[in-house]
Amino acid sequence: MSTYLVTGANRGIGLEYCRQIKAQGHQAIAVCRETSTELEKLGVTVETGVDITADESVNNFVNRLGNQSIDVLINNAGIAERVTLDDLDFASMRRQFEVNALGMLRFTKAMLPRLQDGSKIIIMTSRMGSIDDNTSGGSYGYRMSKVAVSMAGKSLSVDLKPQGIAVAILHPGLVKTRMTGFRDEAISTEESVTGLLARVEELSLANTGIFWHANGEVLPW
Ligand SMILES: NC(=O)c1ccc[n+]([C@@H]2O[C@H](COP(=O)([O-])OP(=O)(O)OC[C@H]3O[C@@H](n4cnc5c(N)ncnc54)[C@H](OP(=O)(O)O)[C@@H]3O)[C@@H](O)[C@H]2O)c1
After folding, report:
1. What structural domains does the chain harbor?
2. Residue 221: partners with Cβ closer than 8 Å, 6 or more residues away
């Protein structure tokens, strides 16, 4: 049995990660700002009050964890706000950087003492953060913050390889959650997370730093 820690676990993809991790017989530590009835029903360990944009909140949480070691850290929390060229909302862009890029790095750095040789780190990025794949433009805040988090993930993969820690940068597909307005054409969280957890299994020091679609396709940077 392995111990997985998931941020943004109260809804959407994070909630489904926790459900499937438990169903596979592993321990899930569900980290969120506020819990939800769906999360409480899963019967996993729930840690509330954790805002990844705030040092104190993150450090208090890590202290609460004590000596608990983590096999798989899933950095899933994120936000998406619409920013167009006609309406360049810099406050929104900063918010998206704070959560999507800096928040991931703050949380991961604070968690490093709880990881060990053989642990894995998952960074939930987006294909929207692929420069090569950008043919539709727009989404300045989200796209730029996801490029930044992918780059942070790549640096983490280089820096942590000597410690035996592998890092994957994952795109979940277009998934039916509050973030995407539960769009009809999007795939279910079940389908997405089944693929994502298969990628977690496949991740090793041999392929660390990889940018993967949940379906196994290697994505262009
Ligand atoms: N859905 C998609 O199609 C799609 C596509 C590409 C990438 N992704 C990425 O996949 C991840 C999960 O997305 P989702 O679709 O499941 O989104 P979601 O349903 O909107 O859930 C986002 C989660 O992030 C948490 N969160 C936001 N700000 C936070 C903060 N400051 N501190 C801690 N937690 C915070 C939210 O908590 P609260 O409930 O407290 O707000 C929520 O649990 C995100 O990183 C997203 O960018 C999603």
Report:
1. 3-213 (3.40.50.720)
2. 130, 131, 132, 150, 211
